[in-house]
C-alpha cells in the first residue's frame, strides 16, 4: 500500500503559523509518544529558531513506558525541554508551568535587564492533526482561564488565553502537517489514525500492524488474541477474526471487519501500551 498524506490547506496553515510565531516566545509542540519522530514536522525547527522550545510527549498513556523515558532523554539531549503528558486525563499537566518558566528564563532575564517587569510569556501550541492540541489547551488552560481578546498591536482576531500573570496562550493551535518520504513513516501515521482512513486498505494496514507486533510485542499479541503460532500474519488475522466472531454470511471469515477491530483496539490502547518507533543512539 502506498501511504500518502493529503496536503489540504497546508500552505495556508504554514502562512498562519509563520505569522503567529512572530508573536510568541515559546513553542509548545505536541508529539505522539507512540511515534515521537514520525509525528513531527522537522520544518518547525526552522520556523521556530530563536524561540524557546518545549516538547510534550502526549498520549503517553498509550505508549510503552520504557520508551517514553528514552524519548524524553532523546529530546533533552537535542536541547528541548520535554514533559511527558496525558492531555486527556490531565496527567503531567501540572508540571508544565514550572518547565515553561525554566525554558523561557533567558527571555525573562532579558526583559528584566531592560527594565520590563511582568511581561507575560506568550506561547503557541503546535502539532499534527489529532495529536491532542485542543484537548491539551482545554486541560492546561482549564475552566479558570480568561480570554484576553484583541489587543492593540496584535494581529486582528487573535485571542489569547491568560493562564496566569506570567503566561498567555494563543487560543488557536498551529497545525503542522506530517512530512515524509519514507513509507514506513506513513505507515506509522496510519496505525495511529493520523492519516485519512478512507484512502487506506484496512486489511493491508492490519497485516502491517501484525507484522510489527510479532517483531516487537509478540507476547502482547499472543495474550490479547490467544494466538499460538505467530509465523504468518494472514493466519494471525484469521485467528483474530475467529476470536472476535467476524463472519460474513455463510461461514466465511470477515477479514476486513477483523482488521478494523484490531486497528481500533490498537488505537485506543486496548491491545496494550505500544511504542511504534524507538530512539536510536546517535540519531
Ligand atoms: P487535535 O486538536 O490535535 O486535532 O487533537 P484533539 O485534541 O482533538 O485530540 C484528538 C483525539 O485524541 C481525541 O480523541 C482526544 O480525546 C484524544 N487524546 C488527546 N490527548 C490524549 C492523551 O494524552 N491520551 C489519549 N489516550 N487520548 C488523547 P477523540 O476520539 O477524537 O475524542 P474522544 O473520544 O476522546 O472524545
Which band does the percent of strand residues land in? 5-15%
Rounded radius of gyration (Å): 21 Å
CATH superfamily of the largest domain: P-loop containing nucleotide triphosphate hydrolases
Mean pLDDT: 90
> What is the helix content?
25-40%
**Amino- and carboxy-terminal Cα gap:** 27 Å
Number of strands: 8
Q: What is bound: which ligands?
A: guanosine-5',3'-tetraphosphate
Shape: elongated
Provide the domain count: 2
CATH fold node name of the largest domain? Rossmann fold
- Tally of individual helices: 11
| Class by alpha and beta content | alpha/beta
Sketch the major β-sheet: 8 strands, mixed
CATH class of the largest domain equals Alpha Beta
CATH architecture of the largest domain: 3-Layer(aba) Sandwich
Spans where pLDDT lies below 50 across 5 or more residues: none
Descriptive notes:
The chain is of the alpha/beta class and 283 residues long. It folds into two domains: 8-171, 3-Layer(aba) Sandwich (Rossmann fold); 201-267, Conserved Hypothetical Protein Ylqf, Chain: A, domain 2 (Orthogonal Bundle). It is 40% helix and 13% strand. The protein has eleven helices and eight strands. It has helices at residues 10-21, 43-47, 65-77, 96-103, 105-113, 133-141, 183-192, 202-216, 218-225, 233-243, 255-267, and strands at 26-32, 52-58, 81-84, 121-127, 146-147, 160-164, 167-170, 174-175. Strands 1, 2, 3, 4, 5, 6, 7 and 8 form an eight-stranded mixed beta sheet that branches. Helix 8 (202-216) packs across helix 9. The mean pLDDT is 90. Bound molecules: guanosine-5',3'-tetraphosphate. Residues 58-59, 61-62, 86-88, 127, 129-135 line the site of guanosine-5',3'-tetraphosphate (G4P). Residues 58-59, 61-62, 86-88, 127, 129-135 line the site of guanosine-5',3'-tetraphosphate.
